[in-house]
Amino acid sequence: MKRYRSLKRLTEPAAEPVTLAEAKAHCRVDIDADDTLIQGYIRTARELCEDYVERAFVTQQLQMKLDQWPIEVELPRPPMSNAGTTTAVIVSYTLSDTGATATLPTSVYRVDRDATPGVVRNLYGGTWPSNRDDQNSISVTWWAGYDDASSIPQRVKNAILMTVLALYEGRGDAQLPAGAKALLDSVSWGQYA
What we know:
Blueprint: E1 8-11, H1 20-27, H2 35-53, E2 60-66, E3 73-75, E4 90-94, E5 101-103, E6 109-112, E7 118-122, E8 138-144, H3 154-169, H4 178-185
């Protein structure tokens, strides 16, 4: 897995891919005393599974910082969000002369949401603006994740449920079960070189 030194989640998902009721049924828990614990395990399981396949399962806002402009900006954690107000891609950079921050107008770049992962590219024949040659002088913010729970592959939901069960039975031993890994491998989009 490729790690981005500056990739961070700005907005947490509003909901998880599996419900508390689904997780309790999978864990065969019929009491309410462990609800808070299981809800925490649901989030942890989702995060472990997302990290394993480098995907975003539920809508969340991400930000990545770069030092220089690449030929094209690859946006990790596919898929890119395609619905409603969660489609904005914001590209900002530090001006080379003044050190002020500017936002790149959306009219000078294009976003390829169909690519896996998504990509921000110059318009044909265009060039990126000059930026200050410094760490993290370029910032890209976007929304990633499936647009609704019904779009999330069932294999992913099953992998999350298997991980919740392992966390619940192991009382927090944060390991992905082999079966969950096998399910997640079937939805993996590939590795970076």
